[in-house]
Specification:
- The chain contains two helices and four strands, in the order αβαβββ.
- The mean pLDDT is 79.
- Helix content is 35%, strand content 29%.
- Strands 1-2-3-4 form a four-stranded antiparallel β-sheet, covered by helices on one side.
- With 105 residues, the chain is α+β, with helices and mostly antiparallel strands.
- β2 (63-72) and β3 form a beta hairpin.
- It has helices at residues 2-28, 50-59, and strands at residues 41-43, 63-72, 78-86, 90-97.
- The longest helix has 27 residues, at 2-28.
Length: 105
């Protein structure tokens, strides 16, 4: 009797072993791609594309562009980092693509 109960437990346990190793292998084979951080270089505000200046004026009222920087993204497109001066002395940092659309990571 004890041997038959032991055999049932062993058979049940062995049935789950392939499922366990399959899930472990599936987890280990996932590819993870990390995007390199953008390296920004300061530029003159006058060198910003007109599309960005227009977008900032439309998106943020009562602000001024205090500084600007640009970087090349992993896809080869220019990304612009702008520091905006907001009323009350606060600052905000925003990111734009060269076409004037907001950059999203």
């Amino acid at each position: 009797m004890k041997k038959s109960i032991l055999m049932v437990f062993l058979a049940t346990g062995l049935a789950y072993v392939p499922a366990f190793f399959t899930s472990v292998n599936a987890t280990q084979s996932k590819n993870v791609f990390l995007q390199d951080p953008l390296t920004f270089v300061e530029i003159e505000i006058k060198d910003l594309p007109e599309e960005i200046a227009t977008s900032v004026a439309n998106d943020y009222t009562d602000t001024i562009i205090k500084s600007a920087a640009s970087a090349d993204s992993a896809t080869g497109k220019k990304v612009y980092k702008l520091t905006l001066g907001i009323s009350g002395g606060e600052e905000s940092i925003v990111y734009y693509n060269a076409d004037g659309s907001k950059y999203e990571e």
